[in-house]
## 1
Amino acid sequence: MSFYTRTAFRYFGRYSENIAIFFPDLKSDIKKTKMRTSVQEYISTSILTTFLVFLAEIPLLSFAFALVFKSFLFSFITGFTVSVLLSVLIFFLFTQYPKTVVSERSKKMNSGLPFASLYLSTIAGTKLPLNRVFQIFGKFTKSGEIGEEVGMINKDMEAFGFDAHTALERAVERSPSKNFKDLLWGLLSTSASGGDVVSYLREKSKTLMDDYRRRLTEFSKKMMLLSEIYLTAIVLGTIFFVILTAIFSGVSTGVRSIILLQTLVIFIFLPLMSLMFIILVKSSTPGEE
C-alpha cells in the first residue's frame, strides 16, 4: 500500500464501507481488474483525490468567473457550485473506471478465445488429465489475457494445492469475459459428469471460430461503409468546402473571415473527425463483450 493510499484510508476509510453499499458491483469489478487493492482502499483513494481536486477547483473557477462577471460573491458561489458538480462527476468516473478496465480485458480475451479453445482441444486430444492440459497450455501461452488467466489456474493447482475443478471454479469467479466463463463452466460440468472433454472442446472451438468468422465478415462490411462515408463526407467534403470558399473569397470582402474558417475546418474539424473515425473503428473491432 502506497503512502497516498494509506493516507486516504486513514482519513476516509471509516466512510468507504457505507459508500460501497451504493456500488454493489465495484468489489467484483476491482477483483476482475487484478488491482492489488480492496474496495475500501479504492473508495478512500477516490474520495481523497476528489477532495484535492475540489480544493484546487474553487480558487481557479472563482477567479475565472470573477473575470467574466466582475462580482466576487457571485463568482465564488458559482465557482463553488461548479466545483461541487465537477467533483461529484470525478468521483463517479472513479467508480466506473474498473468497469472500463474489465470491459477492455473482456474484449481482449474474447478476441483470442477461438484460437485458445482450438489449442486446448488439441492438447486435450492427447487424453491427458485436465490439470496437465492447462499446465501444457500455460507453458506455451504465457502472453495475453487468456495466458494470464490460465497461469492463475495453474498457480491455484500447483502453489495452493487446489484440484482442477476447484481451480476452474475460482477462474470463473474472477474472469471478466462471459465467453471464457461459459467455456470453463462447460468444461467443468463435462469433466465432473464424466463426459467427453475432447468432444466438448472441439465443438466449443468450432462454435467460437464460426462466430469469430461471422464477426470478421460483419466488421469488413462495416469498414467498407465507414470508409466510404469518411472519404466522401469528411475528406472530399473538406476539399470541396475549401475550394468553394476560396472561390467566394475572390468576389467578397471578408477574406480574413474565410481564411479563418478554412483554417478551423482543416486544422480542427478534420483532425477531430479523423480521431472520431479511429475511435469508432477501434470500438467496432471483433472481440466485443
Note: Residues 72-124 form the longest helix (53 residues).
## 2
Amino acid sequence: MDVTIDAEQRAALWGDVTLDLTGIDAIYLAIRDREWEKARALRCRFEADMRLLDDIGWAEHEPGECFAITVPAEELRPVLQRLHDNASRHAHQLLGGTQAALRGVEIYADLLEHLDGEAQSDPDATSA
C-alpha cells in the first residue's frame, strides 16, 4: 500500500526526520558502551528514517506537489507514531505549542489514521 502526501506534509516530515537523524551518533555510543541491542534498535530506527527520505527526497526542497511513500505500512507506522509523539511532546513543552508544532501533530495523526483505515479495508490484513 502506498501513501501519498502533499508538499506541506512532506515539509513537516522532512524536517522532523532530518532532525531525528542528528542522533545517529547514538549508534556509535551504544557500540562503544557494548549495548548491542540498543545499537541494533537504533540502526533500525535510523534506517527507517533514511528509507522515508528515499521516498520523499533528501533535499530540503523538492519539486512536486505529491510524494509517494512506498515504505511498507508496518515499517512506516512506528516512524509516524514516534514523530507524532515527539511533535506532541514538543508542542506541549512550548506552552500550547507553535503553529508549526501543532500542525505537525495534526499531520502525523492524519497519516496514522489513513494507515489504520487502509489496514482495516485490506482483506489480507484481517486474515493474518
Note: The helical segments are 7-20, 25-32, 36-56, 73-93, 99-121, 123-127.
